[in-house]
Amino acid sequence: MYTQGLDQAEKKEAGGAGKESAEQLAAFQARIDVEEKIEAKDWMPEAYRRTLIRQISQHAHSEIIGMQPEGNWLTRAPTLKRKAILLAKVQDEAGHGLYLYSAAETLGVSRDRMVADLLSGKAKYSSIFNYPTLTWADIGAIGWLVDGAAIMNQIPLCRCSYGPYARAMVRVCKEESFHQRQGFEIMLTLCRGTDEQKAMAQDALNRFWWPALMMFGPNDSNSTHSAQSMAWKIKRFSNDELRQKFVDITVRQADFLGLRIPDDELSFNEATGHYEFSEIDWQEFFDVIAGNGPCNKERMSKRRKAHEDGAWVREAARAFADKRSAQAA
Amino acid sequence: MSEQVWPLYEVFIRTRGGLSHRHAGSLHAADDQMALDHARDTYTRRSEGVSLWVVRSDRIVASDPAETAAFFEPAADKIYRHPTFYDIPDGVENL
Amino acid sequence: MRPEQTLTAYALRLGDSALILGQRMVELVAAYPELEEELANANFALDYIGQARLFYTYAGELEGAGRSEDDFAYFRPEHEFRNLLLVEQPNGHFGDTIVRQFLFDVYYLLVLEALTRCSDRRLAEIAARAEKELRYHLRHCSQWLLRLGDGTEESHQKVQQSLDELWRYTGEMFAADALDDAMRTLFDGPDLGAIAAEWHRDVAAVVDEATLSMPPEQHMASGGKKGVHTEHFGYLIAEMQNLPRTYPGATW
Predict the structure, then answer these.
(1) Residues whose CB is less than 8 angstroms from the CB of residue A328 and which lie 6 or more positions away in sequence, other chains included
(2) How far, in Å, CA of B85 to CA of A275, rounded?
(3) A-chain residues within 8 Å CB-CB of B34?
(4) Fewer CB within 10 Å: C terminus or N terminus of chain C?
(5) Residues of A in contact with C95 (CB under 8 A)
(6) How many structural domains comprise chain B?
């Protein structure tokens, strides 16, 4: 999902794990098991803290980088109403990044540190945002598919064991409820429009379908962190469960739009009640995660430039505040 | 030179008159006025409030979770502080 | 010119400046100096675009030819736009965008205040709504002007240069043309002479507090109010209008 990079094996980081007694760990797990929420200053295993920091910051980075592909169409939105809606949506993404960075900061990592890790390439963000938005229909497809996939993952996160993350996600989900709808509405309008518009919609679905399925991360059998995250109730459903749920729901919506899912193997299994679909091109997935997607370089260089261009402004504001508080003292 | 960062603030919102302010989240700002503006732009985009408080996070004094037991449990056995502790016979009114 | 034509043209002119400034701000999305400023500036851009929609919709009703807000935004050639040259200037750095918005907002707020008292009720209502939004914008960008002016040596120099370079686009605001005069006589519209004096006083107060200097008297550029724009403008319009013009008749 927005934190799919977590599912990759990581280098073991040195931590204070040695200091944690079996009793402490058992007591912690017992709190989780009875659905108690863990709060910022509560005792927690170092690995729990690290996992959360990585997951929440990746989620935040995804929101921030995710502003770019949609922002790409803000100046060219085809009506003033669409322009305003898209701007409000991209603004929400900035807000969600902000809520999530704040949630991660409660774990003792500064936003600055997280941003530095993003800019240095150390931290990851969702693979989906490394695909280009080439037509207006892509804005519809992102709202419909990408936000649709995100919601699948985010609703369970509202019940995550870590209180500040869960609360941030409640706010995110509440605000995001319009995002998917506006995307579907764009697609619907295009599908009811001219032949050219309908072709535009189909083309967007063709390009975004597989990347959207990749958002759920590797298959469960290849997901290294899932079991521990499930036990800690940071994660509540497996990658494959969520992906299946997404496919089942979305295929029907595509039918309604009169669009064709770009998968010749797609078929409904009466016995299981689920759609079966082709194997994902995992090579592509790992390439994009590794930084070789169509837009990785552009996304990162734009973010880096914005950060660097803003340095003198942030410094000026700090200097001004210091002067004023010195005057007041 | 490492950049000096903007401090963290906590944001509290009064949803409507008659209710108390509630913690909504955090943000970064260079000064108090900016924190208030950012709180408005970040946390009241959907008419969530009629009043805002912002306070620098490092100015908040918080209890220590490690001392939760010593801090809060002594109140637990003072059940005589609650009205349900007292048996009042049926038929006694206005009490 | 019939009275409704005056109102129509005036509403369009207001809408044009609001839309074009909003469009310029939209170009900056995902490139602001800090995350919190993304949210603030998206709010401002949404306000300007929202105001443009109200002015355009009203203009369409007054005109009575069935033109919608989008017809005005997307299907007029650049010389029919009557926005001020100031708002179409490219974004530059953050100091440039703050100064551009500040200089415009001081003016725009004074105009809106005056319009709340004009004799056309609809226009007065739209102005009253926009005025509330502008009060907040102006406070925000005045604060930024102080921070940049009285921040670091670098920020002081940068923002002084922004002020000096954008200054030549401010004269046009107060040069009353036939439309301004008609608006004033027929509908009790803004008195640009009085507004110019207030504007200079308000701007000077903030510039002074920001430890900046008022730019010297200089030649003022003009043309926006009669549809003669700077070279940057064609690109802005081409980009904004591209999609609806490529697929005429399509619904989005």
Answers:
(1) none
(2) 59
(3) 317
(4) N
(5) 313
(6) 1
Residues C111-132 pLDDT 10s: 999 999 999 999 999 999 999 9
B/e letters for C77-113, b = 16+ CB within 10 Å, e = fewer, are: ebeebbbbbbbbbeeebbbbbbbbbbbbbbbbbbbbb
The token duo for A253 is 């919506």
Which of A133, A173, A134 lies closest to A2, judged by CA?
A173
Other Cβ atoms less than 10 A from the Cβ of B64: the count is 9
Selected for mutation to probe chain B from A318, A324, A325 (highest B CB count within 10 Å) is A318
Identify whether B85 is part of a domain.
no
CATH code of the domain in which B53 resides: 3.10.20.520
Domains and CATH numbers, chain C: 3-212+219-246 (1.20.1260.10)
pTM value? 0.94
What lies within 8 Å, CB to CB, of A218 at 6+ separation is: A4, A7, A8, A239, A282, A285
Q: Does B58 fall in a domain?
A: yes
Q: C175-213: buried (b, 16+ CB within 10 Å) or exposed (e) per residue?
A: ebeebbebbbebbebbebeebbeebeebbeebbeebebe
Quick check: is B56 in a domain?
yes
| C-contacting residues in A 60-119 (Cβ below 8 Å) | 64, 67-68, 71, 74-84, 87-88, 90-91, 94-95, 97-98, 101
Give domain status of residue B14, yes or no. Answer: yes
Express each pLDDT in B59-68 by its tens digit: 999 888 888 8
Q: How far is CA A21 from the centre of its chain?
A: 34
How many Å lie between the alpha carbon of C138 and the closest alpha carbon of chain B?
12
Is C140 part of the contact surface with chain B (CB cutoff 8 Å)? yes
Helix (H) or strand (E) holding B23: strand B22-28
Express each pLDDT in B1-35 by its tens digit.
345 689 999 999 999 999 999 999 999 999 999 99
Determine which of A63, A89, A98 to mutate to test the interface with B (most B C-beta atoms within 10 Å). Answer: A98
Residue A14 confidence (pLDDT): 46
Q: Which residue segment(s) compose the domain that B58 sits in?
A: 8-62
Distance from CA of B13 to the nearest CA of A (A): 14
- Per residue in A156-193, pLDDT (tens digit) is 999 999 999 999 999 999 888 899 999 999 999 999 99
Tokens read off for B43: 């946390």
- C147 contact residues in B (CB cutoff 8 A): 30, 34
